[in-house]
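Input chain follows. Return structure tokens only.
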Amino acid sequence: MADYRNIWAEEDGPGFVPIKLQSCTAPRDDKIYVMYHGTRASDVDSIRKNGFQRSKVGMLGPGVYVSRDIRKASRYPLGLCDSQKAVLKLRVNVGRVIKINYQEHPYKKTWHSHGYDTAWCPPNCGMVSSGLEEDCVSNPTRIKVVEVLRPKACEDPWDYPDEY
């Protein structure tokens, strides 16, 4: 049965502040977190106007791939120079979250059919070759674009100004 509650109700409350959770900390169900998504600069207007489109394939199956680690998002899309890329700062309501922390996880590509809204791969768990945290969100309506950033090559996430 579909869940028709307002998933953004927390955001509408007084004193709401989006959570900037470190990538090594497990996300809690039904919370809104700051995350990032790397994309082509030429696709930004379409994403802002029409929302995200789920990828059909990927390490965790279909969904929208995001990360709490801006370094991860800044790498994408692979093969493009930085001038052709944009990083979208997001608010993501993660819903029900499952941790996928090894390659042979039984729900690796089927988590969404088991009632989960987001799959989370912690950093350095062996799932992602870069060792950086990654999330896959099944339903794009759980994602809001907050700001468009230009990627910045850096090794330390604290090199970014606080507003990132």
